[in-house]
């Protein structure tokens, strides 16, 4: 499998290896993929919880745009 990275991503990978936290680029990428999987799982769980609250609670005064923006803000602050 071949994967292309931006210059910034290549520099990040190199810095991680130079720091001694990883032995090679493959370890950095595998770690990033594991974290991405955890992150996606958390986002999906959060969305399911919000949907469940929506079904079970009374009507909300927030619009769909408000809810989406709230989630984006929460993710940016993580």
UniProtKB/TrEMBL annotation:
UniProt record similarity statement? Belongs to the ParD antitoxin family.
Q: What InterPro entries does this protein map onto?
A: ParD, ParD_sf, Ribbon_hlx_hlx
Record NCBIfam families: antidote_CC2985
Species this protein is from: Epilithonimonas hispanica
Alphabetized UniProt keyword annotations = Toxin-antitoxin system
Which GO biological process categories is it annotated with? Answer: regulation of DNA-templated transcription
Statement: the UniProt record of this protein carries the keyword Translocase: no
In Swiss-Prot or TrEMBL terms, this protein is called: Type II toxin-antitoxin system ParD family antitoxin
């Amino acid at each position: 499998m071949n994967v292309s990275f931006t210059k910034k991503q290549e520099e990040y990978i190199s810095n991680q290896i130079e720091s001694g936290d990883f032995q090679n680029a493959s370890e950095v990428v595998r770690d990033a993929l594991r974290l991405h999987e955890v992150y996606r799982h958390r986002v999906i769980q959060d969305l399911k919880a919000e949907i469940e609250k929506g079904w079970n609670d009374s009507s909300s005064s927030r619009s769909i745009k408000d809810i989406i923006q709230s989630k984006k803000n929460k993710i940016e602050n993580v």
